[in-house]
Design goal:
The protein has about 350 residues and is of the alpha/beta class. Helix content is about 50%, strand content about 30%. It is built from eleven helices and five strands; from the N terminus they run αααααααβαβαβββαα. It has helices at about 1-10, 15-40, 45-65, 70-75, 80-105, 110-125, 135-145, 165-175, 190-195, 305-310, 320-345, and strands at about 145-150, 185, 200-235, 240-270, 275-300. Strand 1 (about 145-150), helix 8 (about 165-175) and strand 2 (about 185) form a beta-alpha-beta unit. The longest helix is centred in the N-terminal third of the chain and has 26 residues, at about 15-40.
Length: about 350
């Protein structure tokens, strides 16, 4: 129908579009009005939303016809159904509100509360600020939401002065910014205390089973390299200087300092109501820092360009322990966030 109207708007003499509109418009109006009458007499849940759809369709078609002079000449009886649509919208919101109250009154925990929240949200979409729907949405959402407290990670190492703040802050940032599920909310212990959250649904308890920062390994390797056919001097033959070829050698020594840092995070998800751990994962992380340099004795021509470049290098001071700790935590952080996403996606 809209296609025919659009064609007549640009070409009033379009025969096929004229025939389609003349024959099809009355049928379309009749279909929707009969549908409305049948729905009003039915017991179909939330039927007023379907009724609203029909009234909106009829109103939209009427509006399009008014913008097409050729169309108005071909059809009669078109009118707006804005008043009927407004009443249907109010009735639809009322249905959803009642369904939300009924669901909220059922003693079925989060399942009923989620159902209630979705009904209240739909009621508010249909009729913004219908009665006290916003307050009802907040009430249902609170009971529907799984409240998860992320405990702090205990890391104590006075000798190295390590701090877990970077890792903890990254997890908290993830939990506050990524909504993997609208019915799951993460709290820091401080937020839980500030909001007087007496008993969370879950408590995430991360702690390091073990970690090693700055384990040093030093490897020294010496090899002797020789190269043939290298110019080692000159001789004069019959008054002409000629190159003398021979072997050259060099003793090449490389030093490789490796500092390994690694840890194993144990992450438990504890259910205070059931008084048990409902999920547990071990998450490893490792970071290896290296510094390589070299020296040689003998003729540098026995060495490759790469070997000579290594000989130009000097030992580099390693990063401080805190940086090493952060680096091996990065892959653990990726595992933690991925696991939280997967675990709470369907709650």
């Amino acid at each position: 129908m809209l296609k025919a109207i659009n064609r007549l708007r640009s070409n009033p003499d379009h025969k096929k579009a004229r025939a389609t509109l003349q024959e099809g418009f009355p049928l379309t109006v009749s279909y929707h009005l009969e549908r409305v009458a049948a729905l009003k007499n039915s017991s179909e849940p939330f039927r007023w939303e379907s009724i609203l759809d029909s009234y909106n369709t009829l109103t939209m078609l009427h509006s399009e016809l008014q913008r097409c002079p050729a169309c108005r000449q071909l059809v009669s009886g078109s009118r707006s159904y804005l008043n009927e649509a407004a009443d249907a919208r109010y009735q639809a919101a009322s249905d959803r509100y009642r369904a939300g109250v009924q669901a909220l009154n059922r003693d079925n925990g989060r399942i009923s509360a989620k159902e209630a929240f979705l009904h209240f949200r739909r009621a508010n979409e249909l009729q913004p600020d219908y009665r006290d729907v916003r307050a009802k949405m907040d009430e249902a959402y609170f009971f529907a939401t799984l409240k998860v407290v992320l405990e702090q990670i205990p890391v104590h190492s006075r000798t190295m002065g390590l701090s877990h703040e970077f890792f903890q802050n990254k997890i908290n940032e993830f939990a506050s910014s990524v909504r993997m599920n609208e019915f799951v909310r993460f709290y820091t212990p401080q937020e839980a205390q500030a909001t007087k959250l007496a008993k969370p649904d879950h408590v995430v308890r991360p702690q390091f089973d073990e970690f090693v920062v700055g384990q040093v390994f030093l490897k020294e390797s010496t090899e002797t390299f020789t190269r043939d056919s290298v110019v080692v001097g000159q001789v004069k033959v019959e008054g002409v200087n000629k190159d003398v070829y021979g072997k050259v050698s060099a003793q090449f020594t490389t030093f490789r300092k490796t500092i390994s840092s690694r840890g194993l995070l144990d992450m438990q998800i504890y259910d205070p109501t059931a008084n048990r751990v409902v999920n547990q994962q071990k998450m490893p992380g490792e970071f290896v820092w290296q510094s390589e340099w070299g020296t040689f004795k003998g003729d540098e021509r026995a060495l490759t360009r790469k070997q000579l470049e290594i000989c130009q290098l000097r030992e580099v001071p390693p990063p401080p322990p805190q940086d090493l700790f952060i680096e091996f935590c990065k892959p653990i952080y990726g595992q933690v966030t991925a696991h939280l996403q997967n675990y709470y996606r369907n709650y």
